[in-house]
Amino acid sequence: MAIHDCCSQPGLRPFIDAKTDMLNRLEATRSTELIPVEQALNCILADPISSPIDVPSFANSAMDGYALRAEDITEGVGLQLIGTSLAGHPFSGRLGPGECIRIMTGAALPLGADSVVMQENCRSEHNVVYPAGPVNTGQHVRFPAEDLAQGETVFEAGTRVNARVLSVLASLGLEQLCVFRPLTVALLSTGDELKNPGELLAPGDIYDSNRIGVRAMLERLGIRVIDYGIIADDPQLIRQTFLNAATEADALITSGGVSVGDADYTRQVLEEVGRIGFWKLAIKPGKPFAFGHIDDCAFFGLPGNPVSAAVTFHLLVRPALARLAGEALKPTPLLQARALMPFRKSPGRMDFQRGIVSTQPDGSLGVVPAGSQSSAVYSAMAEANCLLHLEQDRGNVAEGDTVALELIDGLYW
Ligand code: AMP
Ligand code: MG
Fold it and tell me: Which ranges of the chain have pLDDT less than 70?
């Protein structure tokens, strides 16, 4: 693999270059299954969905009021009230000249009627209705197929079913959907210092937070997780666990052991049992992130520092898993905001600093750092609501400078 020189940090691969390369090396080879619509939340559509019906399928009223013929409206002249149309109980007759019916929101527009006047704009006396003001033909009518036409493509294959997509699918009356089978991801932490919740900390120990946080993000994405727990810094054990995981999962995510310390075996073992795609990126946090394969199993080595682990998961693993899962991920929109305080930055690595963005009194966006920018301080991460995208070659950001940022989706991480 070519080593890319960049700026002041030779040997580190630029972020976009590495991400593109990684996505090119991953392929969606998912089998599909049919599932009931009610169980489709978070699934990825395997086929495009075209509408089996017109939505709406009949002309109906957008207001509570009166259905009538616009041409009958003359100032001061009343219309004869001849019936009612309620949602689910259409009026069966036909509207003639000079007639109207009472109609409720969602109720079918009767034959002969072309418009609706809201009840607030009508006076009614002894079954005669006096609509006020001019009426535009078609007003307050929802026309057939106005929303979706029968046969129209509603969603492309690769769409993730979120609550909004699910509602549209439900409105089409679909019973079953063809979706990609969910990914299975193996997850483990490496580190002799790591302890599980509830265990006592010996001197030098810390609690394993990466695995818990990453598992939460995976579960939010509808991924099946095989949790291998904490693996000691023992190359033999790491090797055996990697090989087992590779036979059981579509991807293996590890945390820790990817740096150049004496007990960092992750990358070394990956090299022995699999193939390294790349290691070491021109990013901060997350420089030692490693990507590769063990047989067909994709491998993602997250750095041990908690902020680095979470940020590289989001920036690199999330899109990679989308590719594997058959999900067509849309580019993340970047917003422009004004730095309300200086941000320290040295040229050489793209820096994804954690920030708090807010709307200023003049309506513009302003951003401040979310506490410490150390990759070991996770509490600041939890306070942040955005990730800044500070360009690789950029230096310090002064107060008042414009920066690009992405909002953190608080439902997923
Ligand atoms: P490493 O990448 O293994 O050298 O770890 C870098 C730093 O992250 C060290 O301070 C580790 O103690 C810490 N660390 C490693 N794994 C975890 C984890 N699962 N949860 C929290 N901190 C970790
Ligand atoms: Mg370690």
Answer: 1-9
Cα separation of the two ends of the chain: 33
CA dist 310 and 316 (Å) reads 10
Of 180, 199, 231, the residue at which a domain comes to its end is: 180
Q: Taking each helix axis from N to C terminus, what angle separates 318-325 and 15-24, rounded to the nearest 10 degrees?
A: 20
Confidence at residue 1, expressed as pLDDT on a 0 to 100 scale: 39
Closest residue by Cα to atom 23, ligand 1, is: 304
How confident is the model at residue 410, as a pLDDT?
A: 85
User: Is 330 a domain residue?
Assistant: no
User: From residue 87, how far is each of 57, 60, 96, 106, 350 by CA, in Å?
Assistant: 13, 9, 22, 5, 57
Domain containing 49 equals: 34-53+149-180
Pocket test for ligand 1, best of 270, 305, 308, 313 (most atoms within 8 A of CB): 305
Q: Are the beta carbons of 285 and 303 closer than 8 angstroms?
A: yes
Return the pLDDT at 9: 67
